[in-house]
Amino acid sequence: MGHSAAVWDHRASLELTKDWNGIEQVVLRNPQGASARVSLHGGQVISWRNDRGEELLFTSSKAILKAPKAMRGGISICFPQFGNCGSLEQHGFARSKIWTIEDDPPPLHPNDSLGKSFIDLLLKPAEEDLKCWPHGFEFRLRVSLASDGNLIMISRIRNINGKTL
Ligand SMILES: O=P(O)(O)OC[C@H]1O[C@@H](O)[C@H](O)[C@@H](O)[C@@H]1O
Fold first, then answer.
1. Looking at the predicted structure, is the pLDDT value of residue 3 above 50?
2. Residues of the chain above pLDDT 90, percent
3. How high is the mean pLDDT of the chain?
4. pLDDT band for position 4 (50/70/90)?
5. How far is the CA of 83 from the centre of ligand 1 (A)?
6. Annotated Gene Ontology MF terms (predicted)?
7. 40 lies in which domain range?
């Protein structure tokens, strides 16, 4: 009896590491050698490489890679706004926060996990965030690397205080 895809252990394909500022990063790998690197700073995918090791994402040489400054490169999470309306910071605060890894997130469709290397991240507002944007929320982000090297990101935002966002 061989192992089927149903018992694929996605954790075996994850590497946890830290950047030069001590902020955690997660590296996803697939069996063909593709990879994606996700920083908990901003929940930002900062590298996506194909199976030939070629980088597919741009990062500016002028990027400041130190929280709480947003990183200029990779895939930014712009929440709760894109742009610079009102008193919120440009493109929202999510990209400058330290996200956490969620071990047991609310379920997604099984197809979203099967055969993929993935990580689930979570952002909840801190007191200071509620002062400039008074909404309780949970922002869940799944970043997956598929066996064909595709990168998939699923955002789920839950309103937890019943007021319209
Ligand atoms: O410079 P930031 O805040 O990282 O924003 C990234 C870019 O966001 C875009 O929306 C702006 O048009 C650019 O001018 C800006 O450089």
1. no
2. 73
3. 91
4. very low
5. 8
6. carbohydrate binding; glucose-6-phosphate 1-epimerase activity
7. 2-159
Residues 149, 48: Cα–Cα separation, whole Å: 9
The Cα angle at residue 66 between residues 65 and 70, in degrees rounded to 5: 75
In a domain, residue 7? The reply is yes
CATH code at position 126 = 2.70.98.10
User: CB neighbours of 116 closer than 8 A, spacing ≥ 6?
Assistant: 10, 144, 145, 146, 147, 152
How remote is the CA of residue 122 from the centroid of ligand 1, in Å? 24
- CA 90 to centroid of ligand 1, rounded, Å: 8
Work out the average pLDDT over 28-51.
96
Are the CB atoms for 57 and 102 separated by under 8 Å?
no
Domain count, the chain: 1
Q: Report the residue among 75, 84, 91 best suited for mutation to probe ligand 1: largest number of ligand atoms under 8 A from its CB.
A: 91
Assess if residue 140 is contained within a domain: yes
Residue 34 lies in a domain: yes
Residues with CB under 6 A from ligand 1: 70, 72, 90-91
Is residue 21 assigned to a domain?
Answer: yes
